[in-house]
Amino acid sequence: MPMENMPDPVSPASALPMLILRVLQTGGLHGYAIAQRIHLLSSEVLAVEEGLLYPTLQKMLLKGWVEAEWGISETNRRVRFYRMTAKGRQQLKKELHSYDRVSQAIRDVLRTA
Question: Are 74 and 80 in contact (CB under 8 A)?
Fold first, then answer.
């Protein structure tokens, strides 16, 4: 695959919790499905690597933003399914507000510089 067609790793990494929470807003998913959903919804621009996804999910579990339970995937494998908690919904609102502020600030600089 030519370099210009390679998916970009999620960057900055601080956006990953917001993306995970947004994807989980519609229902529980296992880790690989979360990564796939982000990749597809970003028109295959963003790629979430396992080395970043699972540590982020673990931090989100510890913060109470998501909860997990073991289940069987569509490929008949034992996987953890993650779902957003009420605390996660509150965090998503904060993350989206912060993202909107930063995005607007960047647009302002690009427009006026």
Answer: no
Q: What is the DSSP letter of 44?
A: T
Domain range list for the chain: 3-112
Q: What DSSP element (H or E) covers 43? A: none
Instruction: Give, in words, the CATH class of 3-112.
Output: mainly alpha
Measured between its terminal Cα atoms, the distance across the chain in Å is 36
How much is the pTM? Answer: 0.85
Q: What is the pLDDT along the chain (113 residues), one digit of tens a residue?
A: 454 555 544 456 689 999 999 999 999 999 999 999 999 999 999 999 999 999 999 999 999 999 999 999 989 999 999 999 999 999 999 999 988 898 898 899 999 98
